Amino acid sequence: MTRDVLREVLGAVAVPGPLAAEVHEEVACDGYVRRRVSYDVPSGKASAFVCVPDALSAPAPVVFCHHQHAGQFDLGKSEVCGLRGNPDQAYAAELARRGFLTIAPDAIGFEDRNWAGAKNIGWFELSSRLVRGRTLLADCLQEISLAVDYATSLPEADPRRIGFIGHSYGGRAAIWAPAWDERIRVSVSNGGCIPYRHSFARDAGFQAEFVVPGFAAGYDVEDVLALAGQCEFLLIAAEDDRWSRGAREIETRLRERRAGHVRVHVVPGGHEFRPPERELAYRFLDRLRAA
């Protein structure tokens, strides 16, 4: 697979206009300032939190923090910033305290991007694109790139050092985003590496955002990971997590391809992002400091 093939498989995206970004609020937090921002994207208005570390002596590495799914459509950026939801998901805030500039937008259909009172609109967002020969995944990936555009335009950010982290839905996005955007140099996926071939099981299935017509006929996540050779990946998988199935297969298949930029770490437990795994993730993202 090449990037041209990837773009062809995912379908066209609209040409974005100017971001026209606005800062709506700044809040002083423990070790960082949290800004609530918005900017224009082709499908509407993006809504994000940007966490800027205090007392920076030099521009900081940027980490895109993608929220989980969990069927909680009223939650997105607020959970990864520790304002609501599961404290174990507050990695955007934790990374800001460690000196990373983090950006955490709502994905399409979540929190401020949900137009149906926190109902599941993912399948509508998917089908309304499929009938036009487009995919929801392409638009989601384009929005990730636009968020990176915004974050790296800030004077506090180092545009050469860009990372990504996510759990569950965010863990899946952590595999795809570096294949779409070559600027992402380090990416951590927790609890989201299940290949398409294992998703046909009835207790797994397919998330709307990752339904791409024909993709599984010729490709799988190993192809996406292999494509993003500019990025160092850490895939954290749990033994009793269905969304982590196939992790060791991925490791074996990529080793056969000599794709040494992907590391797989399997731990006991279920679909969680516990402190030990977050610490492992943060240490891996520290590679950006030496980039």
Automatic annotation (TrEMBL):
<dbReference type="InterPro" id="IPR050261">
    <property type="entry name" value="FrsA_esterase"/>
</dbReference>
<comment type="similarity">
    <text>Belongs to the AB hydrolase superfamily.</text>
</comment>
<dbReference type="InterPro" id="IPR029058">
    <property type="entry name" value="AB_hydrolase_fold"/>
</dbReference>
<protein>
    <recommendedName>
        <fullName>Dienelactone hydrolase domain-containing protein</fullName>
    </recommendedName>
</protein>
